[in-house]
Design a protein that fits this description.
single chain, alpha+beta, 22% helix
């Protein structure tokens, strides 16, 4: 079982890599990966008091897999973002891979995410606001993009208070 000590931190080269799609033949592995992601997210919540979702590459699993648990667990296999709104909003973003740093970024107000669930069934979800922002953040991880790379300007960084 992976733990907080397995979480990749800012500067780890793997955080900047593009992930490979999950193959249908790898579906039996997804349950274990998700269990690891869930465990690390629970540890982050205990230590830092935040954490709504985690991307597989943050644990060195270089696959297009996102796990979210807000009111119920949701597994996003090979997600794709569509219908990104023209309307943007600004926020202070946080990340488990640098838990004490906040970064001001702009995100799309709404989007549609298409993905496969843990039963390999196609799903679609229209998201707005906080959920839209969250999935954009996690999706970026799958493409080797950190919110530090999306900072609005050079003053868009602050330590968590």
């Amino acid at each position: 079982m992976k733990t907080l000590s397995d979480l990749l931190l800012l500067g780890d080269a793997r955080l900047y890599e593009t992930c490979d799609p999950v193959l249908q033949a790898e579906l039996p592995l997804v349950k274990g990966w998700v269990a690891d992601m869930d465990n690390v997210m629970k540890e982050i919540r205990l230590k830092y008091n935040f954490g709504r979702a985690i991307a597989a590459p943050q644990l060195g699993i270089m696959k297009r897999l996102v796990y979210m648990n807000i009111d119920k667990p949701v597994v996003f296999i090979n997600p794709e973002l569509h219908n990104l709104s023209d309307e943007l909003f600004e926020l202070w973003d946080d990340c488990m891979s640098f838990p004490n740093l906040l970064v001001k970024v702009k995100r799309h107000q709404s989007l549609t995410i298409k993905y496969l669930d843990e039963n390999w069934q196609p799903q679609q979800w229209q998201m707005e606001g906080a959920l839209s922002e969250l999935l954009q953040h996690e999706y970026d991880h799958l493409n080797g993009v950190l919110c530090t790379m999306r900072a609005i300007d050079d003053k868009s960084f602050k330590w968590r208070g």
